[in-house]
């Protein structure tokens, strides 16, 4: 028994965004009230499903980036930095992180600022404000073959593992995939269908954590454009059949993240486990056949 077109269309709908925008505005205002050291500049912006218009009903946590822009980190070697005349900055990412925590604590109260997470500072919900995962980052410049790609970087606390990401490229590539030139507006609604389907096949508490929304989006980014369209049933089955085949024959090794800066599957913290992806697709097939 297949999933009806009407059910898939319902799953394709975007969730509410007003609360996420309000949370972002609240955090931005809190940062603006803070007395920053001289010559420090930054930007704040949404990332994740709210930024990419792939949020669904039930999504609550808001992902925000506060990015230090007056300092940048890069992929350049020490010798290359010397040749370009670059010198170490006096104000570091670590100092910026402490200032962001101080700004949030000063505005909301330290009891609402949770710094125990390894990758983000969590702003706890209160008075209609959604919970926010605030990634404190700095501008990152990736140089390769004379080409510059700008992203952001931060370090885990504790552990000091550097993580580099490219949310702006992720957004731009997703918008292009969704455009009239590629999938005629079918891509992002399909991502929302697959996210809602995930909630229907959750088996225990661990399964949703193994299938993050970011990786669902990246997975579908690799599906050929001609698999999208006509109807939600056609798009759903065509995408699943293609993914099932590709994840079985080894072609998955060529899958890229939506930012196209790294491969989707691997062992790093910004890559996905191939077995979890296969399990996800198998469960979607079972859901369709119920």
Characterization of this structure:
This protein has ten helices and seven strands. With 290 residues, it is of the alpha+beta class. The chain folds into two domains: 18-165, Beta Polymerase, domain 2; 171-289, no CATH class. Strands 1, 2, 3, 4, 5, 6 and 7 form a seven-stranded mixed beta sheet that branches. The longest helix is centred in the C-terminal third of the chain and has 18 residues, at 232-249. The chain is globular, with a radius of gyration of 20 Å.
Q: How many structural domains does the protein architecture include?
A: 2
The number of distinct β-strands equals 7
Rounded to the nearest angstrom, the distance between the terminal CA atoms is 6 Å
Class by alpha and beta content? alpha+beta
Helix content: 40-55%
Kindly identify the CATH topology of the largest domain. Beta Polymerase, domain 2
CATH class descriptor name of the largest domain = Alpha Beta
- Alpha-carbon Rg, integer: 20 Å
What are the segments in which pLDDT stays under 50 over at least 5 consecutive residues? none
Instruction: Report the principal-axis shape.
Output: globular
Largest sheet: 7 strands, mixed
The proportion of strand residues reads 15-25%
The succession of helices and strands, N to C, reads HHEEHHEEEEEHHHHHH
CATH architecture designation of the largest domain: 2-Layer Sandwich
- Residue-averaged pLDDT: 91
Task: Compute the number of helices.
Answer: 10
Based on the structure, what is the oligomeric state of the protein chains?
single chain
């Amino acid at each position: 028994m297949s999933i009806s077109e009407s059910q898939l269309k319902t799953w394709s709908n975007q969730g509410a965004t007003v609360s996420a925008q309000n949370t972002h505005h609240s955090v931005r205002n809190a940062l603006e009230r803070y007395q920053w050291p001289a010559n420090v500049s930054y930007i704040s912006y949404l990332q994740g499903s709210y930024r990419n218009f792939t949020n669904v009903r039930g999504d609550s946590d808001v992902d925000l980036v506060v990015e230090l822009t007056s300092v940048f980190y890069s992929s350049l070697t020490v010798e290359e930095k010397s040749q370009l005349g670059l010198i170490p900055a006096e104000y570091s990412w670590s100092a910026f992180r402490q200032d962001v925590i101080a700004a949030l604590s000063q505005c909301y109260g330290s009891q609402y600022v949770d710094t125990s997470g390894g990758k983000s500072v969590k702003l706890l919900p209160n008075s209609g404000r959604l919970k926010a995962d605030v990634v404190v980052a700095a501008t990152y410049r990736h140089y390769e073959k004379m080409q510059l790609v700008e992203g952001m970087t931060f370090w885990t606390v504790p552990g000091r593992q550097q993580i580099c990401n490219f949310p702006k490229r992720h957004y731009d590539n997703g918008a292009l995939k969704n455009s009239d030139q590629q999938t005629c507006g079918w891509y992002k609604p399909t991502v929302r269908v697959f996210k809602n389907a995930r909630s229907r096949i959750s088996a225990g508490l661990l399964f949703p954590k193994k299938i993050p929304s970011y990786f669902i989006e990246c997975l579908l980014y690799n599906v050929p454009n001609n698999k999208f369209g006509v109807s939600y049933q056609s798009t759903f089955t065509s995408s699943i059949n293609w993914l099932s085949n590709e994840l079985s024959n080894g072609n998955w090794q060529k899958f890229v993240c939506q930012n196209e800066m790294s491969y989707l599957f691997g062992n790093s913290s910004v890559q996905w486990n191939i077995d979890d992806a296969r399990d996800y697709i198998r469960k979607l097939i079972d859901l369709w056949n119920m």
